[in-house]
Amino acid sequence: MSIKLNPYLIFDGNAREAVHFYEKALGGKVVVMMAFGDMPADPSHPLSDDMKDRVMHAHLKVGDADLMFSDTYTGMPYHPGDTVQIAIHPEEARAREIFAALEDGGKAVMPLQKTDWSPLYGIVKDKFGVIFQESNRSNFTQTSAPPTKRIKFLSFRDDKNLIRFPFCDKLGIGNVVYYIIFNEKKVVIIESA
After folding, report:
1. Residues in contact with 117: Cβ distance below 8 Å, sequence separation at least 6, in sequence order
2. Are residues 10 and 61 in the same domain?
3. Angle CA(132)–CA(69)–CA(66) in degrees, nearest 5?
4. Are 135 and 151 part of one and the same domain?
5. Do 130 and 107 have their domain in common?
6. What is the mean pLDDT of the chain?
């Protein structure tokens, strides 16, 4: 049995703008874009003019990947966040161009740089609050193994708290980067016991 997953991005009335932004930034192609107003009218649930213009479903093809989009229904709660991130793996020749396009109106969380796992890796939050992790592996030979060691627990200290939790696997620098980004906390201490 095979299964295919794709990110589905939800916006609050600006999905159409987002689709065209990603189409240009990522070099994608719009497969379909349907507004709520394109659907047959239902007299028992009339749509406002604003609602008719909102995107019900859009599909953007980027290489072999699929991004899907929708606007919320007017009045529904909308809470943008970083619980879903998109990993993108462009060829090195386009990596900086794509990162700059996504950063336009947004901000670099981690500028593009060489890491133990990629010659160019960076994290950018675009103007819609969507976070992209960009990683390039082309023509990359790792010169040394990432730092790893067997540990029993991790301790992180932010401005107010010491956070300690069990950890029974090898820790590489990538795990620390993801912790920092997902929780938006600065790691001050990492210890093992």
Report:
1. 135, 137, 142, 146, 174
2. yes
3. 65
4. no
5. yes
6. 75
